[in-house]
Amino acid sequence: MLPNKAKCLALLGGVLAALSAATASAQMLINGAGATFPFPIYSKWFNEYAKVDPSVQFNYQSIGSGGGQKQILSETVDFGASDGPMSDDNLARAPRTLWHFPTVAGADVITYNLPGNPKLKIDGPTIAGIFLGTITKWNDPAISGRNPGVNLPDMDIVVIHRSDGSGTTYIFTDYLSKVSPAWKEKVGKGTSVSWPSGIGGKGNEGVSGQIKQVPGSVGYIELAYAKQNQLAYADVKNSAGNYITPSIESVTEALATADIPDDFRFSMVNPPGAQAYPISGATWLLVYAEQKDHAKGEKLVQFLKWAYSDGEKLAPGLNYAPLPDALIKRALERVQSIKY
After folding, report:
1. Which among 249, 122, 100, 135 is positioned nearest to 175, based on CA atoms?
2. Nearest 10 degrees: CA dihedral of 326, 273, 282, 232?
3. Residue 99 pLDDT class (50, 70, 90 cuts)
4. DSSP-based three-state secondary structure for 252
5. DSSP 8-state code for residue 306
6. Distance between CA 30 and CA 335 in Å, rounded?
7. Which of 47, 218, 260, 290 registers the highest number of CB atoms within 10 A of its CB?
């Protein structure tokens, strides 16, 4: 027979295991899917919120904005996420009213893999030419002319683009459509487009990985991914004629100029502002105005309130621009209107 002390310890272990199992089974799971652009900040939010309310767990699949839109429309998730606002046609397919909640803003950066990874300057028409396949060498005058003193190699440019439906792509192609008539006519904007050239990568993660592996490559990714992967990225010429480094500050200036309607669907690419970064975009959570599941709906509303009050403060630490106070106030008013 076990000594009394051993018996007590064994019994205590069994009780703790049972309590742990009961807690795990009682924990509510809220499922979401979509954009890779905000994945780093959303992961942080979900981890931090678990400390605020341990009764709920968020399961977020970073599958791209196109996938997020499809899954929320089919109601296979409790919320979707997208960096491109949904089209009128897509919204019309929703079984009931679907709302956009802006969360943070960020930058699409032009990243590349060159010997020494020099800091480059580039403008919109040149970016369009590279991705259209009309500028094919790194020492092309369109690039070298803007970068005097930089020894650009006689190397083929290898274009890397997204292979999945992507809000990062939406922001990028929205920008190119505004600065390049040729791009607007031949390719246009969208979460998925017919790419004239290049190699596809899945998610911001996939494009980042390709850039790191392929010498001479160029692609577009969210700023947080470039910094995490220690990738070089270019300063981009804005509408005021200044070459701007993507940063929280230059994205914040771009966001400050955005005209934001009542449905919160807006674009902020190629904005006015002397220090505004031109390839900036917001990202949204997609949530039904009327929640089918009362308990989940209540928890989702509580999370959104926390995100706008406390979560926004975490954005700069992960290279995202928080929303301005006036926009947060408007978004919170909409959150209050969610029925569950």
Report:
1. 122
2. -140
3. very high
4. helix
5. H
6. 17
7. 218
Domains of the chain and any CATH numbers: 29-105+282-335 (3.40.190.10), 107-280 (3.40.190.10)
| Least confident span in 12-21, 57-66, 108-117 | 12-21
CA distance 3 to 235: 72
Cβ neighbours of residue 62 under 8 Å, at least 6 residues apart? 33, 34, 35, 36, 39, 203, 205
Percent of residues in the chain assigned helix, strand, coil, to nearest 5: 40, 20, 35
DSSP 290: B
Residue 124: pLDDT above 60?
A: yes
For helices 325-335 and 294-309, the axis angle rounded to 10 degrees is: 170
Q: What is the DSSP string of 15-73?
A: HHHHHHHHHHHHSEEEEEEE-STTHHHHHHHHHHHHHH-TTEEEEEEE--HHHHHHHHH
Q: In this structure, what DSSP letter does residue 89 have?
A: H
Whether residue 38 contacts residue 286, with contact meaning beta carbons closer than 8 Å, is answered with: no
pLDDT tens per residue across span 284-310:
999 999 999 999 999 999 999 999 999
Give the Cα separation of 321 and 282 in Å (integer): 9
Per-residue exposure over 166-182, b if at least 16 CB sit within 10 Å of its own CB, e if not: bbbbbbbbbbbbbbbee
Are residues 304 and 273 in contact, defined by beta-carbon separation less than 8 angstroms?
no
